[in-house]
Amino acid sequence: MKGIIGTLRNLKSEIVAAIVLSAICIWKEHTSLNFLSSVNLSSYLSQDRLNGIAAFFAITIGVYIAVITVLATTEIGITKEMLKKKLDRPLIDVMIVGIIEDFIAVGLAVFIPLNTITGYVLIIFLSASIISFLKFTVLLV
After folding, report:
1. Rounded distance between C-alpha atoms, residue 136 and residue 24, angstroms
2. pTM for this one?
3. CA nearest to 118, candidates 35, 38, 53, 36
């Protein structure tokens, strides 16, 4: 139980982003404001753009795996500093959740037909994935 709570603490920004984006998506569906009703996800998320999204997140998955491999197999100065600063657990949490978010984003972009609901879910996972990758790079440096 302590591990789950610790993981959730490390993922506050992703959870907040998902809640805010979900609220915006629900609000967009139930209001008729001009600036929100003009956004059409199916035209914005074309097949070519979805392929680009899938390729980008496949590359980030590769980066996560490469860093995990380097950190697990070598003893370098970065690893020692991370252990001193107790950044190992937050980094592992961000990497694992980032990989899961990226797999979901790639799966949605490639395998699931795009409609309103899947478009919103894709936007939420894309945002969470980008936040996780930014946190990953900040924790690593």
Report:
1. 26
2. 0.73
3. 53
* Of the candidates 111, 129, 108, the residue with the CA atom closest to the CA atom of residue 120: 108
Residue type, 101: E
Cβ atoms of residues 24 and 106 within 8 Å: no
- Measure Cα distances from 88 to 27, 46, 68 in Å: 38, 39, 11
User: Which residues, including other chains, have CB under 8 Å from residue 82's CB and lie 6 or more apart?
Assistant: 71, 88, 91
**What pLDDT, in 10s, does the model give residues 8-67?**
566 677 777 778 877 877 776 666 655 555 566 666 778 888 888 889 888 998 988 888
51 touches 99 (CB < 8 A) = no
Dist CA 20 CA 23 (whole Å): 5
| pLDDT (tens digit per residue) in 70-126 | 877 777 666 677 777 777 777 788 888 888 888 888 888 888 888 878 888 888 888
CA-CA distance, 123 to 126, in Å (whole number)? 5
Helices (H), 11-113: 12-30, 34-37, 41-44, 47-73, 77-84, 88-111
